[in-house]
Amino acid sequence: MRRYLTIVFCMVSAIVCFPWAGATAGKAYIWHDKDGGVHFSDQAPHPDEAGGDIEEREFKEAPRPEPKPVTISDNPIEHAVQSTFRLTNRRGGGSGFFINADGLAITAKHVVKGATYSMKAEPAGEKKKYSVKIIKKSRKNDLALIRVMIRKPTPYLEIRKTETLVRGEPVWVVGNPLLAFKETVTSGNFSRIFPGKDFKKELKIKAPYKGDWVQFSAPVIGGNSGGPVVDKDGRLIGIVSLGFKAYNAINLAVPASYIEKNFAAQLK
Asked: CATH number, domain at 177?
């Protein structure tokens, strides 16, 4: 009997002393019946039921859970910011972004043109700079595949198929304008897929690179080159490449789908 009483008492103590989610304020009662049996309940027994003293204990109301903190995954645009980094070298620099957790990344080819091993990457929120290795440059498009020599897992962007874009849908650009305004976000809209052949036909100039372009209206300036253009879900739709100084609402990005076309072998 003594062992039984000890077990029951410990169970009641655990209930009283260690609140759990959903617990409310109240009381617990421990009492013996006329035959010596031990009982506990959340209501006081009737005087005829109890054969002796009734022990009363109070519950403490369980603390309400803290609001869930906002994490990177809760905010797609913040995730895009955390996936983007500033690129610098002796000639200048631009922006880049990770495409996997192992430091593999993308930037614009013109950002790394003439770059040497002096190139450094500065991830969002960090002051430390990491060395960068150029893996491959595209022959046709303004794209370069690089690796940031970082040993911890890196946040990265998922790629959205270019053909799923809808005219007028909102887009965001993440980058480092003038290389001074780090982690800057601008917004605009997707305008259309601008055909590469229209450079000469409509603009009367030779296209600097081959292929079609993602035309968007989010403002960009020098330093944004190589940075990502993302949709509302933080998915990559393009890589900032060209802008028209006189018309800042008309800018061009390399379609995200061109990454696979150019670097399929390296991404396996």
From this structure: 2.40.10.120
- 24 with 123, same domain: the answer is no
Q: What is the pTM of this model?
A: 0.73
Highest-scoring range by mean pLDDT, 18-32, 107-121, 203-217: 203-217
Report yes or no on 66 lying in a domain. Answer: no
Residue 21 pLDDT > 90, yes or no? no
DSSP secondary structure, the chain, as one string: -HHHHHHHHHHHHHHHHS--TT--SEEEEEEEETTS-EEEESSPPPTTTEEEEEEEEEEPPPPPPPPPPP-GGG-HHHHHHHTEEEEEETTEEEEEEESSTTSEEEE-GGGSTT--TT-EEEETT----EEEEEEEE-SSSS-EEEEE--SS----PPBPPGGG--TT-EEEEEE-GGGTSTTEEEEEEEEEEE-TTHHHHHS-S--SSSS-EEEE-S---TT-TT-EEE-TT--EEEEEEEEETTEEEEEEEEETTHHHHHHHHHH-
Q: Are residues 50 and 150 in the same domain?
A: no
State pLDDT tens for residues 252-262: 999 999 999 99
The residues assigned a catalytic role are 110, 142, 225
Q: Is residue 268 part of a domain?
A: no
